[in-house]
Write a structure and sequence with these properties.
The structure holds 2 protein chains of 2 kinds. Chain A is an all-alpha fold. Chain A is about 75% helix and about 0% strand. A two-stranded antiparallel sheet of chain A has the order 1-2. Chain A is globular. Chain B has 15 helices and no strands. Chain B has a domain of about 220 residues. The longest helix of chain B is centred in the C-terminal third of the chain and has 27 residues. Chain B is mostly helical. The chains are: A mainly alpha, B mainly alpha. At the A-B interface, helix 7, helix 11, helix 13 and helix 15 of A face helix 7, helix 13 and helix 15 of B.
């Protein structure tokens, strides 16, 4: 609750003092990211080549985006298990709208974002107005969204306009577009953070009853958090298309749970009110790098999944240990 | 909350009176007893299950035949057995949830069927091996949650990945092994008064679990822990061991459910029961157990498992296209939860 106030005060402090006040969880997140980057580069030096960076970030982008989306909902005290289904639905809608035509790329963008927004609003209404448990409610809406994705595109296929796949692999001023997109998301968060609605979302996550008593529109804040999440998932749907070059109604599968893992590794408390999507970006990159590293280690195929599981559980426990606990 | 603390073991035989439906303790008088009963989630869920069967019988003759109903109950038993553990974990409170039950059930099924490999003599070692490994997984979950204070959602989410990896290591990516004939007969035969033995096992488990929850020290301690950890601790309840036990039981029942499923399918798949995790949570919620912990019981979860299974088979029977089936399933789940799964208003 006091987090927003503290944040407001901190913005006026000198940077050194602010660094000293950074939470333990953020240090754990940063340390994990640094270790992951060093290990990945040591094992695969060509990761740092311009092409390596571009293609690595391109494959990471969907999870990074969904993790940011998930972070906003989690900070608001919710959870979105339908994030993966929203990504799938908005990507297949965009594929069908664009039909591979470069001319309808703008329309496709709008369709993907609009689909994401609509799904997010449905989630938000179910959670805030029907007051259902977010976990189980978004599990149910995930079922609805994946069903609709199957209706829109029954089997994987379709073509993505060359403009999207091409731009996705290009570089602007030496910096790959995929990297620029991650930076854009981070900057977008810095803007969003300043808005009143984000303070309301954070206050709601910190404690809905106290927020309500402080005249925070709790239901509106919940609705907004899911709506924002939906839009970002729509964007992630486009990133998926840019990567794969075709539509796939089943793409969402593991994205939702992976995004939750990324959020936790990013130092965001699942009980809400604490953390920042910047951490979630770091968490998503750490987890994605972890699988790159395990791939480079040339483990026997059947052991790879176990190793990945152990690394994830280790990262999760380290972050959870560093996370601040509320007194009970 | 108040209901739970003053009446943790539920002298109320119907089993559940979740906070919120009856906050002021009204409705205890004879005149409103019917009203109280109609607000009991277990009763509502049972009515919904019956309605679904009736609707199915009207839309598709033969859907409500005794034979078909027994069939559906048989399929519901796997989810129902897995939901036993999920119920215990949710009851233990502290945001208790077990996301690893689906993969643990699959692992249990794989270990058991590889060991028995189609031979009746090896059923006992196979089942024992599966249960011991499952118990060890549950122990790790519980210790991580209690000692390292990792939130249950995070701990069991991580375990989901680890167990998924274990499955690949054990099988090398190829699921082999067959269920023993006796196990297949237990699930698929009609030996006991014309119904499969697995239903008898399920009923037996349900009775035992309900008695353990309502009539034993462990049950009382579990409800006390779920209702309020600090209060329970101050009253001398060993909160830590109780929580760890809850997660061990969750994994053990998950493995048991997985083994029953192999009896049905006769062969294992690498993702046999993976998709049952979220339905098991849904069954618990539909059954009226509060996600916050401390209130509820297993009877509701069993009925919840039946509701979910009947719904799935109804939608399959109606030969809807796959997309419509998935959509309707989600919509119905939301509608079900909206009937009584709603959380309290902030404006009290």
């Amino acid at each position: 609750m006091t987090d927003t106030k503290v944040a407001a005060i901190e913005e006026r402090r000198p940077i050194g003092e602010r660094l000293g006040r950074v939470r333990v969880a953020s240090w754990a997140t940063a340390a994990l990211l640094i270790v992951a980057v060093i290990a990945a580069v040591a094992l695969q030096p060509n990761l740092l080549s311009p092409y390596g960076v571009a293609s690595t970030f391109a494959t990471f982008l969907p999870l990074v985006l969904v993790a940011v989306a998930q972070a906003i909902v989690v900070i608001g005290g919710g959870l979105d298990l339908s994030a993966g289904a929203i990504v799938a639905l908005s990507s297949v809608v965009a594929v069908q709208v664009m039909q591979g035509q470069d001319g309808s790329v703008l329309l496709g963008f709008l369709a993907a974002l609009g689909t994401g927004l609509a799904c997010g609003i449905v989630n938000g209404l179910v959670v805030s107005r029907l007051r259902l448990q977010p976990l189980i409610a978004t599990f149910a809406t995930a079922s609805v969204f994946s069903g609709l994705a199957l209706l829109v595109l029954p089997t994987p296929g379709g073509t993505v306009p060359a403009m999207i796949t091409g731009t996705f692999r290009q570089a602007v001023g030496g910096i790959p577009v995929s990297v620029l997109l991650v930076v854009a998301v981070a900057v977008g968060w810095l803007v969003l953070r300043q808005l009143r609605i984000m303070r309301h979302i954070r206050a709601t996550g910190g404690g809905p009853a106290a927020a309500f008593a402080s005249l925070v529109p709790v239901a509106g804040a919940q609705l907004a958090s899911y709506a924002i999440c939906g839009v970002i998932c729509g964007l992630a749907g486009l990133a998926v298309l840019g990567n794969s070059g075709s539509g796939d109604p089943f793409i969402g599968g593991a994205l939702a749970l992976n995004s939750v893992a990324a959020v936790v590794v990013g130092g965001i408390a699942l009980r809400g009110g604490i953390g920042s999507p910047i951490g979630a970006i770091a968490g998503a990159i750490t987890l994605s790098l972890a699988s790159t590293i395990l791939f480079a280690l040339n483990l026997p195929t059947s052991w790879r999944a176990l190793a990945a599981g152990l690394v994830v559980i280790l990262a999760l426990s380290l972050s959870a240990l560093g996370a601040p606990r509320r007194q009970r | 909350m108040s209901t739970a603390t003053t009446n943790p073991a539920g002298t109320d035989p119907a089993g559940t009176d979740p906070a919120g439906t009856n906050p002021a303790g009204t409705g205890r008088t004879a005149t409103s007893r019917a009203g109280t009963l109609l607000r009991d989630p277990v009763v509502i869920a049972a009515i919904i299950a019956i309605l679904l069967v009736v609707v199915g019988g009207i839309l598709k003759p033969g859907f409500a035949s005794p034979d078909q109903i027994v069939n559906m109950l048989r399929v519901a038993s796997f989810l129902g057995i897995i939901a036993i553990g999920q119920t215990i974990v949710v009851l233990s409170g502290g945001e208790g949830i077990d996301l690893s039950v689906g993969t643990v059930a699959t692992l249990g099924a794989i270990l058991a069927s590889r060991t028995m490999n189609g031979s009746d003599a090896l059923i006992v070692p196979g089942v024992l091996l599966a249960l011991v490994v499952a118990a060890a997984i549950g122990l790790v979950n519980g210790l991580g949650i209690v000692l390292l204070r990792i939130p249950p959602f995070v701990m069991t989410l991580g375990m989901l990945g680890v167990v998924g990896g274990l499955i690949l290591v054990v099988t090398g990516g190829v699921a082999d092994g067959r269920a023993a004939p006796a196990l297949v007969q237990l699930v698929n035969g009609r030996d006991v008064l014309g119904v499969p033995g697995i239903l008898l096992v399920w009923v037996l488990l349900a009775v035992v679990v309900t008695l353990v929850l309502r009539r034993t020290t462990f049950g009382m301690r579990l409800y006390a822990t779920g209702a309020g950890r600090e209060a329970a601790r101050l009253s001398g309840v060993p909160v830590g061991p109780v929580t760890v036990t809850a997660y061990v039981l969750s994994s053990v029942f998950a493995a048991l459910g997985g083994i029953a499923m192999v009896g049905y399918s006769q062969q294992v798949f690498l993702n046999l029961a993976n998709d049952l995790t979220l339905p098991s949570i849904a069954a618990v919620v539909i059954g009226g157990t509060l996600v916050a912990g401390g209130v509820g019981g297993y009877l509701g979860s069993a009925v919840g498992a039946i509701v979910l299974t009947v719904l799935t088979s109804l939608l399959t029977t109606l030969s809807m296209p796959e997309w419509a089936r998935i959509v309707v399933q989600g919509v119905v789940l939301i509608a079900l939860l909206a009937v009584y799964g709603r959380q309290r208003k902030l404006r009290a």
